[in-house]
Design a protein that fits this description.
Length: 213
């Protein structure tokens, strides 16, 4: 399938406080690190991939535009801001480096839902909106900047409801039945859960293994 005119933004500048001593981006789920899983899918789907970090020295090997936060607030909103600021396309799909099961069908569906008047196309799971698996238009930048200045860091707080298009959990389940695309790893226990979610199928030759993610 063709790559889409959209930037894939991966946020990887967090403090990993609930994952002490290790950087979540480099933890393995299945055969690859979480970051490598996301980057590999993004490189297939998007014409541009941006990684937003606070310590670029950790990410020298990755084939993506690596940028740092512009705002010093140290929160995911600051990462979203830098990602949209540097994006070469109007629309960006934004996710976090600790979301190992990004889903191409969900991404392409969200992209197809763009319409005039909307600045955010966002999945709604059974738990609520999923701001770190959503599509944002560059025109969100001024409201993000205002909230960063006001120190209102919760991402959803900058949304203007009439500019947001929500995608229902029922629709999402038709694309990703277990809504894995939004599973995120905060703790070592979450990492073990993610590893358990990777189903490995022995094909009969006993050697070749395929992951279903
Ligand atoms: N670029 C950038 N990304 C961030 C920043 N803070 C968090 N993120 C990313 O946003 C995503 C969600 O972050 P959180 O889970 O809220 O924070 P975290 O640092 O990963 O983990 P905790 O410290 O345990 O809360 C993760 O991918 C982080 O790497 C930041 O200041 N800058």
């Amino acid at each position: 399938m063709e790559k889409i005119d959209c930037t894939g933004v991966i946020l990887a500048g967090g403090c990993n406080r609930r994952f002490p001593g290790r950087n979540k981006a480099f933890q393995r789920v299945g055969a690859n690190t979480m970051l490598a899983r996301i980057h590999s899918l993004f490189s297939r789907v998007f014409k541009e991939v941006i990684l937003v970090v606070n310590d670029p020295a950790l990410f020298l090997d990755i084939d993506a535009l690596v940028v740092t936060d512009i705002d010093p607030s140290q929160c995911a909103l600051a990462g979203l801001h830098a990602g949209l600021f540097h994006a070469g396309f109007d629309w960006s799909y934004v996710t976090a480096c600790d979301v190992p099961f990004v889903n191409e069908k969900v991404i392409r569906y969200l992209f197809a839902q763009r319409c005039s008047g909307k600045q955010i196309i966002i999945p709604r799971s059974w738990e609520g909106l999923e701001p770190l698996s959503a599509l944002y238009h560059k025109s969100c930048l001024p409201r993000i900047e205002t909230n960063l200045e006001k120190k209102v860091f919760m991402i959803k707080k900058f949304y203007k409801p009439e500019r947001v298009k929500q995608i229902s959990p029922q629709t999402l389940e038709s694309l990703d039945p277990e809504l894995r695309f939004k599973f995120n790893v905060n703790t070592p226990a979450d990492l073990e859960t993610a590893r358990g979610m990777v189903q490995v199928l022995n094909t009969g030759h006993g050697r070749e293994q395929r992951e279903y993610v």
